[in-house]
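hey
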């Protein structure tokens, strides 16, 4: 079974709301990498605004929309192989081998999307790499 999918959309956030988007930001100048998946300099926090009713200040919502950027693509192939051996006329042994993420292609998750943090734009997580399981089954 195989899965090939473009990346999942995600929203850049900042503080209590969304930042202002001043340029596209989808691809950083050096291209996509796990250290910099999107150009974080394209997103800035809006200026604080005085709240005349309640006093103090607040940060308004910026102009950046929801789900404006796309994360890494998913390429995954799972394989399985089975072989049955006859032991006697009524008894069999079945060997199975199952390979998950058989091509061992990294399946990175979306990057950190909160601006003004030390991890903005970095991919910090990925599920496990290739996994293989084998089983022997006696059928009687």
């Amino acid at each position: 079974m195989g899965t090939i999918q473009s990346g999942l959309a995600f929203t850049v956030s900042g503080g209590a709301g969304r930042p202002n988007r001043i340029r596209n930001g989808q691809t950083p100048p050096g291209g996509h990498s796990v250290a910099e998946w999107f150009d974080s300099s394209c997103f800035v926090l809006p200026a604080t605004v005085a709240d005349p009713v309640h006093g103090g200040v607040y940060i308004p919502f910026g102009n950046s929309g929801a789900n404006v950027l796309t994360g890494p693509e998913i390429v995954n192939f799972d394989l399985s192989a089975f072989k049955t051996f006859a032991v006697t006329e009524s008894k069999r042994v079945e060997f199975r081998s199952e390979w998950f993420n058989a091509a061992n292609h990294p399946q990175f998750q979306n990057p950190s999307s909160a601006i003004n943090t030390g991890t903005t734009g970095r991919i910090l997580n990925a599920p496990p790499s290739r996994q293989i399981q084998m089983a022997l089954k006696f059928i009687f």
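The chain has no helices and eleven strands. The two ends are 30 Å apart (CA to CA).
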